[in-house]
Design brief:
Layout: H1 2-25, E1 33-38, H2 39-51, E2 56-59, E3 64-67, E4 85-87, E5 91-96, E6 98-100, E7 103-104, E8 107-112, H3 118-135, E9 138-140, H4 149-157, E10 168-169, E11 183-184, E12 201-204, E13 207-210, E14 214-217, E15 220-227, E16 238-243, H5 261-285, H6 288-297
Helix pairs in contact: 1-2, 1-5, 1-6, 3-4, 5-6
């Protein structure tokens, strides 16, 4: 499962680098749209890049490739010939995944092709803080997902923001991309009586959606692992999460002033892991564009 996510991350970085280059250099209309770069055609390129990876078997679900206001439609599915062109002045949300013989992936990244507003950066950073809060949680074995859900929402609540979907779902290994019995949120699966056990996977996907404007989601797949604690009150075993998804977060959307020192340290450590995991694959593929993109986006926040 870990190896599948590394290969998938290399494909995603190659895609984001390709996307950025084409958005910067393509023919731009007066409205800021780029000719030939519509929601379906760019998703086709992502699928093509994934299909070149070892053990690839197909997509794990229909790619949510959404530009500007379409990003606010949580389960948006673009239609070929009827979808929007990407715009340099808007955010782009891509929720996608693949099936490999050794694992299933599900990852969402939100990027901006121009200069994001302070409002967009603040909203993105609140979502990121919720993502970090869940990713760094330490909790007793058997904790049900509905008790973890609030961690991802609290940073958004500080600004009076929220999202109307679950925070996490199980992910199979060449199985269902939504694999029970557990989950994180307020739904039925999140109250699963067995709670989280070591080895269970979950997505971590807080978001924020502003109707008619933009959508933001940051999604990684995590795996629960045993965690050693200083004390062990009541002889209870504890768990923590490890990131399986390896893909950089767009730095220009992060408002560093909102982040605590621990949150900055988390981003920097995560980006180091991403760089260490993906750089050999990009170098092996001779993808200089992807390599340059990766090195830039995984620089320390400082």
């Amino acid at each position: 499962m870990t190896r599948a996510h590394v290969r998938d991350g290399a494909a995603l970085v190659s895609y984001l680098a390709w996307l950025e280059e084409n958005m910067e250099n393509g023919p731009v209309s007066a409205e800021g749209t780029v000719e030939g770069m519509d929601e379906v055609s760019v998703a086709d390129e992502l699928e093509r890049l994934r299909s070149k990876k070892e053990f690839y078997q197909g997509l794990s679900f229909e790619t949510i490739s959404s530009s500007g206001p379409n990003g606010a439609v949580i389960h948006y599915a673009p239609e070929r010939g009827k979808c929007r062109l990407l715009n340099k002045a808007e955010m782009y949300l891509c929720d996608s995944g693949a099936q490999y013989m050794d694992g299933t992936t599900d990852v969402t990244r939100t990027v901006h092709f121009g200069t994001p507003s302070e409002h967009e950066k603040r909203c993105f950073t609140r979502v990121l803080q919720g993502h970090i809060a869940l990713a760094t949680a330490v909790f007793p074995v058997g904790t049900p997902g509905h008790k973890l859900d609030i961690l991802a929402r609290l940073p958004l609540y500080r600004d009076g923001l929220d999202y109307r979907h679950g925070t996490g779902h199980g992910v199979g290994a060449f199985l269902n991309v939504h694999e029970g019995p557990h989950g994180i949120g307020t739904g039925v699966r999140t109250h699963y009586k067995g709670g989280f056990q070591a080895g269970m996977t979950t997505s971590n996907e807080p978001g924020y959606y502003e109707d008619g404007n933009f959508g933001i989601r940051i999604e990684n797949v995590l795996v629960a692992e045993p965690c050693e604690t200083i004390h062990n009150f009541g002889d209870v075993k504890y768990l923590r999460f490890r990131n399986l998804t390896m893909a950089p977060l767009q730095q220009k959307l992060i408002n560093r002033e909102l982040l605590s020192p621990d949150e900055v340290a988390w981003v920097d450590a995560y980006h180091k892991d991403v760089r260490d995991a993906l750089l050999p694959l990009l170098e092996g593929d001779g993808d200089e564009r992807g390599k340059k993109f990766l090195l830039r986006e995984t620089e320390p926040l400082g």
